[in-house]
Amino acid sequence: MLHCPPGQRCARRRVRRLAFGLVVASLTPLVSAATLGEILDLARTSDPIYAAAVAAEAAGREKQVQGRAGLLPAVNVAGNIRQNHEQGQSAGGTRNYQSGAIALTLNQPLFRRTNVVANEQGELQAVLAQQQLKAAEQDLLLRVARGYFEVLQALDALQSLGAQREAFAQQLAQAKRSFEVGASPITDVNEAQARHDLTVAQEITARNELEVKRRALQRMIDRDLPPMARLDDSATLEPLTSRAMTDLSDRAPQQSTQVAIAQTLADVAQRELARQDAGHLPTADFVASVGETRNANYGTLGSNSLRQASIGIEVTLPVYQGGATSSRVREATANLERARQDVENARRLARQDASQAMLGAMSGAALQKALREAVASAETQVRSTRRGLEVGMRTRVDVLNAEQQLHATRRDLAAARYQTLLASLQLKAAAGVLGEADIRGLDRLLK
């Protein structure tokens, strides 16, 4: 039997261990971090606000059916069974008998202006329900994105404070060693201790803030928040161009979902005025009925029955209803004016929201660029300040200030990135064009 040299046996063992490790790794399930799109899927099936909007849209669709019903024939069947008792001279003494009746009636409106307008209202209310659902969808997209990025921002803040605490702990340890050998005064130790303790307190606050943000997002998905994909530090955010942002801002007063809802409500109010005003008009209905009345044990006759059938047109002319119709017309007129003012207010709010979102997106892009340069400068300052401390040209307070400035700038940069993304989404929402694809497109920025 051939034996391999010791070096070859070791190499074979390493190969076998590596192969075994690869097999185990392939059989071990990987726990991947949830992306923004995956959190959105969870929220779409669990968020009670969105679920209520879906139910409201389903209820709103029925308004169209209810409005159309006023134009269609109505068929009713009515019947009764009674025990009768008659007493008197005209009845020939006392008489007890049973009676029953059944009737089938059909009523087809021929001219009812109120029903015609109510049908138009029903169609508008169904459209309104769809618009309100679209607004709820955009609200869900914004709430999920905001909640997701707020959690990430809180994580970044906590991580930055942790790094700052470690840096201050190193400075505190160095200050103590220098003080023990007489190379630095006690004030350096006190200053480093104070900065370290303050950072510990800030870290506790940041941890609490993170838990609050996590629970807010958990409420939308109704389960424990899974590990979340972080925003890639090397990812390049591609903000909207100035022309695209201007175009979205200009379109907001006309295409905003809230403006569309307000306009539909104004149209419904216009139809309501027409419906109330139609209360002064006559109505005409085609009416047909067939029925039978039967009396049992009716005196000496034993029983009798009567069958009836009728067909015709009924016309009603309203003359006076105590002023109620005129009052309802005045009420509908005032409500229409209110709805028109709501439309104008919605347009102004859409213009304002779009302008603020555009300003946030533009300033956010510029702020990111400035803060990246500030971070690079702060890193250089930290290195130079540390070297200056080593040669006696800088104090330990200068080093602590530089460290604190560096980590604060990093937190500001992370916050600026999240705010820029949210501002772009808010601008699209103000213009009424925010969709699910915009949210899922952000997944490529996550790691």
Describe what you observe in this structure.
The protein folds into two domains: 331 residues, Outer membrane efflux proteins (OEP), CATH 1.20.1600; 74 residues, Outer membrane efflux proteins (OEP) (Single Sheet), CATH 2.20.200. It has ten helices and four strands; from the N terminus they run αααββααααββααα. Helix 4 packs antiparallel against helix 5. The relative contact order is 0.13.
Keywords:
447 residues; single chain; four-stranded antiparallel sheet; 67% helix; Outer membrane efflux proteins (OEP)
Quickly describe the structure:
This protein has 447 residues and is an alpha+beta fold.
How many domains is the backbone divided into?
Answer: 2
As a whole number of angstroms, the C-alpha radius of gyration is 39 Å
The largest beta-sheet arranges its strands as: 1-2-3-4
> Kindly state the mean pLDDT as a whole number?
88
User: How far apart are the termini?
Assistant: 53 Å
CATH topology of the largest domain: Outer membrane efflux proteins (OEP)
Beta-strand percent range: 5-15%
CATH class of the largest domain: Mainly Alpha
CATH H level of the largest domain: which superfamily?
Outer membrane efflux proteins (OEP)
Structural class of the secondary structure composition?
A: alpha+beta
Number-wise, the strands total: 4
Characterize the biggest β-sheet.
4 strands, antiparallel
Low-confidence stretches: 1-31
Count, helices: 10
Backbone shape: elongated
Order of helices and strands: HHHEEHHHHEEHHH
CATH architecture of the largest domain: Up-down Bundle
Instruction: State the share of residues found in helices, binned by percent.
Output: 55-70%
